[in-house]
Design a protein that fits this description.
Helices cover about 20% and strands about 25% of the residues. By secondary structure, the chain is α+β, with helices and mostly antiparallel strands. Strands 7, 8, 9, 10, 11, 12, 13, 14 and 15 form a nine-stranded mixed beta sheet that branches. Helix 1 packs across helix 2. Bound molecules: uracil. The site of uracil (URA) has 8 residues, from helix 5.
């Protein structure tokens, strides 16, 4: 639900002040009734018109950002640049980060103002695969694939992680696929195996792959297909 004046400014080029003026002038209707209150809440199924023309519903925004190291995945931070501060978007206060990365982790960060889409992606029940390039301090051992498939027991947790799979790149580098997003999950998984993560880079979430054209710090809107791939 959005206030009428905000709904109009989201869906058109009008500012909120312009929207309020239009409402005062009696040219805005909600479901064929002239609207008078800019604070009236509008739901998705209502039809808002200005001078008889329906304005399109405020469309949701979806982006992928190539997160550099040193940038935090929270919306406000007094000490470090935030992922959102790298973006030149209107109403950036409405953007949310869908699935955080640690300050030193690089790669695919998804950003949206669609709370439901964010929830579908990040809810513990979503079971959405994430793939990380993991560089390890110690060489991997032949037991790793089975230990990961059995579900690693993280310190301080009551339940094992969901099964994870790995693809070997070389003896210190793997591509790891996990379905969950627990706090510091990958670092804690390898700590539990007696190893240490040297660097971590996420390159895939569900069906969305980090665009190789994006340099660290750059971002682009998601395509309709990418958005729809998160069901
Ligand atoms: N797991 C981690 O430990 N860190 C991240 O940033 C993402 C997954």
């Amino acid at each position: 639900m959005l206030r009428l004046d905000k709904y109009i400014s989201n869906a058109t080029d009008l500012s909120r002040t312009d929207a309020k003026r239009m409402i005062k002038n009696g040219v805005v209707c909600i479901d064929n009734e002239v609207a008078s209150n800019p604070a009236q809440k509008i739901s998705d199924d209502q039809d808002v018109t200005i001078e008889g023309s329906t304005i399109s519903k405020a469309s949701k925004r979806y982006f992928m950002l190539h997160k550099p190291a040193g940038v935090v995945s929270v919306t406000k931070d007094n000490h470090n640049p935030t992922a959102i501060s790298l973006m030149y978007e209107h109403r950036s206060d409405e953007l949310q980060i869908a699935g955080r990365l640690d300050i030193d982790t690089t790669g695919l960060l998804l950003i949206t103002d669609d709370g439901q889409w964010n929830h579908r992606l990040t809810s513990p029940r979503a079971d959405c695969a994430k793939i990380y390039q993991v560089e390890l301090a110690e060489a991997i051992t032949s037991e790793y694939p089975q230990l990961l498939a059995d579900g690693v027991m993280l310190e301080g947790e009551k339940h094992r992680c969901m099964p994870a799979t790995m693809e070997i790149v070389d003896d210190h580098n793997i591509n790891l696929t996990i379905a969950e997003g627990k706090y510091h999950q990958v670092k804690r998984m390898f700590a539990a195996l007696g190893n240490h993560v040297v660097s971590l880079h996420r390159f895939k979430v569900g069906g969305i792959v980090l665009d190789p054209e994006l340099q660290p710090g750059e971002y682009r809107p998601l395509t309709a297909l990418e958005v729809a791939s998160i069901l």
